[in-house]
Design brief:
Number of strands: 2
Order of helices and strands: EEHHHHHHH
Structural class: mainly alpha
Shape: globular
Radius of gyration: 16 Å
Strand content: under 5%
Length: about 150
């Protein structure tokens, strides 16, 4: 295995799901979690979680193949080029933008999901009234989990 430059997710959160690479929301966060998993510094973060699978399905990528590519020690740009070459569902810039915007604005789609999101928010800061999307609650949880004022 090559030398992997990985964030220590026991000390800091992965990048926000809002950060984009190649226009894709979530992708930098997924790469952070994958690298941290490979170096056993993922803490409470899991690579190929249900949220990661939204991206993997949209792009048509096998999570094991992506993990193998990341294990080579490739940087974000190299990984993006690999994704563009190997994805089963090549996407136009407009499709990527529309998907990323949708993901950025995604809200709970059922009562069960709303209750789950509310429990995550309550654990971080139940007083916040500006938390309405999944990305909002992830950012809040990441920030407050590492000592930031929620």
């Amino acid at each position: 295995m090559s030398k992997i430059s990985a964030p220590d997710l026991t000390r800091q959160p992965p990048r926000s799901p809002r950060v984009r690479l190649g226009g894709y929301a979530l992708l930098p966060r997924i790469l952070d979690k994958c690298r941290a998993t490979l170096t056993r510094k993922n803490g409470d973060y899991n690579y190929n979680c249900p949220l990661d699978q939204y991206f993997l399905k949209f792009a048509g990528l096998n999570p094991i193949a992506l993990k193998k590519q990341v294990a080579r020690g490739s940087g974000d740009g190299e990984i993006l080029r690999w994704i563009e070459k190997n994805q089963k569902h090549p996407r136009s810039g407009q499709e990527i933008e529309a998907w990323s915007n949708y993901m950025n604005q995604r809200v709970p789609a059922s009562i069960d999901q709303r209750e789950r999101m509310n429990s995550y928010q309550k654990a971080s800061n139940s007083q916040r009234e500006d938390i309405s999307t999944w990305f909002d609650v992830l950012d809040l949880d990441d920030f407050s989990s590492f000592g930031g004022p929620a």
